TrEMBL record:
Pfam families: Fer4
Keywords per UniProt: 4Fe-4S, Iron, Iron-sulfur, Metal-binding
Molecular function terms from GO: 4 iron, 4 sulfur cluster binding; metal ion binding
Domain 4Fe-4S ferredoxin-type: start-end pairs: 179-208, 212-236
PROSITE patterns associated with the record: 4FE4S_FER_1, 4FE4S_FER_2
Keyword 4Fe-4S: yes
Keyword set includes Iron: yes
Lineage top rank: taxon: Bacteria
Protein name as it appears in the record: 4Fe-4S binding protein
Gene3D superfamilies: 3.30.70.20, 3.40.50.360
């Protein structure tokens, strides 16, 4: 049985949901590495012959979040296969999937399949609000089934051509968003859950109603984990752009998957 090294960065848990489903359907012994807040303390050497990497990250401004890219450097592939997925909030994934492919390949993996999937936008929650939905999950299951079939029928993945994913190289410039969640002091009871689980360490434990704008990566984790719903994106400039953003991204995008092009066999 293969070990599946399931590696994900997932601040608001949609990437985790999708990546866990891919690993579940692919089958095998799943070893989970959540790199959202922590990096592995030692290098993870993946057995290139028997194991597979399933790696995923959300799309931040068309790119892989910098923290995810850095944490992925702890994994070493030894020529083993990788299935990669990016998860985005129905605007676009731009160059994120191409970047993720380059990251895992640089770590010594061979990307054998890639997918771009859609989930609720963690800043503009009315965009793709109910995604991934049943139809998405069916497509995710089909993708995972196809990945399992490809790996079962390809004992030596080094001979496979890499899938050509959508995206540009060089990648678009990485940009931070000037939007930070804030806390409603009336609702906050000082439990510090947000401070303890902030991937960027941007919320001081001693004053959890504050947000350090120099550290905050706008990931939205504090808005989904606050037990009292005290934290949210609100105020200016958020209120100025939210309606326009929701309207501009209302048309439903569909999952896209990428596999190696069939290799031509010898002609008779
Ligand atoms: C800083 C930031 C930038 C984002 N940029 C994009 C983007 O370029 N395109 C897009 O469609 N969604 C974008 N999103 C939305 C996320 O990709 C989406 O909500 C994803 O599901 C979040 O994954 P998670 O739940 O695993 O954290 C962005 C979110 C954040 C926090």
């Amino acid at each position: 049985m293969r070990n599946i090294h399931l590696v994900y960065f997932s601040a608001t848990f949609t990437t985790r949901k999708i990546l866990r489903e891919i690993a579940r359907v692919m089958g095998g012994n799943v070893i989970e590495h959540d790199i959202t807040c922590d990096r592995p303390s030692a290098k993870v050497m993946v057995d290139g012959e028997h194991d597979v990497l399933v790696a995923g990250a959300p799309v931040y401004a068309g790119r892989v979040p910098r923290q995810a890219a850095e944490a992925l450097r702890a994994f070493s592939g030894n020529g083993g296969p990788a299935v990669i997925a990016c998860v985005y909030g129905n605007r676009d994934y731009d160059d994120a999937l191409a970047e993720l492919q380059d990251i895992v390949d640089r770590q010594g993996f061979k990307t054998v399949a890639a997918g771009a999937f859609i989930a609720r936008h963690c800043i503009f929650n009315d965009v793709a609000a109910d995604r991934p939905d049943t139809d998405d999950m069916r497509k995710i299951d089909n993708f995972a089934t196809e990945c399992a079939r490809l790996l079962a029928s390809t004992p030596d993945v080094s001979a496979l051509p890499e899938p050509t994913v959508k995206g540009n190289r060089p990648y678009k410039e990485s940009k931070a968003l000037p939007l930070f969640p804030s806390a409603d002091a009336e609702l906050c009871d000082g439990c510090q859950t947000c401070a303890r689980q902030c991937p960027a360490g941007a919320i001081p434990e001693e004053s959890p109603c504050q947000t350090d704008g120099d550290k905050c990566i706008s990931c939205g984790r504090c808005t989904v984990i606050c037990p009292r719903h005290a934290r949210a994106f609100r105020g200016m400039p958020y209120e100025q752009i939210v309606d326009k953003f929701v309207k501009a991204n209302a048309v439903r995008r569909e999952p896209e998957t990428f596999f190696p092009a069939p290799v031509n066999g010898p002609t008779a």
